[in-house]
Design a protein that fits this description.
The chain is 37% helix and 22% strand. It is built from seven helices and ten strands. Helix 1 crosses helix 2, helix 3 crosses helix 6 and helix 5 packs antiparallel against helix 6. The protein is elongated and about 60 Å long.
């Protein structure tokens, strides 16, 4: 009897027409599958793949036997419908802004010595509170601090460090947020922090350009 098969742990994906962008979190890389491989992957997701298609997916290490690894399905946050940036922020206190700068520099240092998978695992162990409203004072104050920190810390090509820092600082304030990774084609990747359906530090029109592929 053949063992049950599932998506390889650490592999996350989203579909663009007949192609898939995949994030191999343990390997810290994105890649694209198309053609026969993408078709086999579609059939596997729809529970109608044949032995030949499964052999292709096993050879490319896109699937594996569940008795050795198991499924790693991760619940994704809801589709974003609003952004705090599109509203009026309260004035950020200087101390909060300094903490926002500290968290971003710490995240940059961590990314030099840790993999994204290790950091994502750490984020997953942060204390989880009951569902948070993005309009709570602590959430607004923290988001405002990261906006003010843009004056002192460049945000260019730093969405990951900024997102990790914001996610950590929000957790410390008791706000239950998610760090969302998104992709688009032609290939580009971005990440942002979200509470419920609300994005905290990116314009909504920027975020909606990407399809979520993973959240921590």
């Amino acid at each position: 009897m053949h063992p049950e098969l599932d998506i390889r742990p650490g592999l996350h994906f989203c579909r663009f027409d007949g192609e898939y962008v995949l994030l191999d979190l343990p390997a810290d890389r994105y890649f694209l599958i198309a053609g026969a491989t993408a078709q086999a992957f579609t059939h596997f997701l729809e529970h109608r793949s044949n032995a030949g298609e499964q052999a292709i997916l096993l050879e490319q290490e896109l699937i594996c036997a569940t008795h050795t690894s198991g499924s790693t399905s991760i619940a994704m946050p809801p589709t974003a419908t609003a952004s705090l940036i599109d509203r009026s922020f309260p004035k950020a206190p200087l101390l909060d802004t300094l903490w926002a700068i500290h968290h971003q520099w710490r995240a940059r240092a961590d990314l030099r010595r840790q993999s994204i998978a290790e950091i994502a695992c750490e984020l997953g162990t942060l204390p989880r509170k009951s569902p948070t409203n993005s309009a709570q004072p602590a959430c607004l104050r923290t988001a405002a601090a990261f906006q003010r920190a843009r004056r002192y810390v460049s945000a260019t090509d730093q969405c990951l460090a900024r997102g990790i820092g914001l996610r950590r600082m929000l957790a410390g304030q008791g706000c239950d947020a998610r760090l969302v990774f998104g992709v688009t084609l032609p290939f580009a990747a971005h990440c942002w922090v979200q509470i419920g359906e609300t994005v905290l530090a990116d314009p909504l029109d920027v975020v909606l350009h990407y399809k979520p592929i993973f959240a921590a």
